[in-house]
Fold this protein.
Amino acid sequence: MRKLQGWEGQGRKLDTSIEDGPESAFTATSGLHGTTLVVRASGELDYCHTSVLRAELGRAWEGLRSPTLILDLSALTFCDSSGIGELLQARHHGLEEGVRLILTGVQGNLARRLNLAGLTQVFEVFPSLTEALEVA
């Protein structure tokens, strides 16, 4: 069963996230920081959970009112190739829509995978959400 939940950023609270259930290993939530929409991914992004991120990003694209979307991955504990594929789809969608997609908090397993695949030059990456918000 899917449960809707919101994430409160600086500003107003958006009730647009999806969580797979009480024992979910992955969540994706959205919140506004000023006028910039931030999607926060948490847990293990694998084949079983890419649909959760895809759904949250879909709602984010629909409600986006700024030229920048930040994807905060600082709480991601694991990401497999299907998760990286989902990030590439988000980048492609952003390019089509003229939206700047920024990744923040890339670390551990994901940082290694992006580096090995040569994708660190493909994505715009900032170490922290604070730094990404400064340029958004």
Residues 1-23 have pLDDT under 50 and may be disordered. The two ends are 35 Å apart (CA to CA).
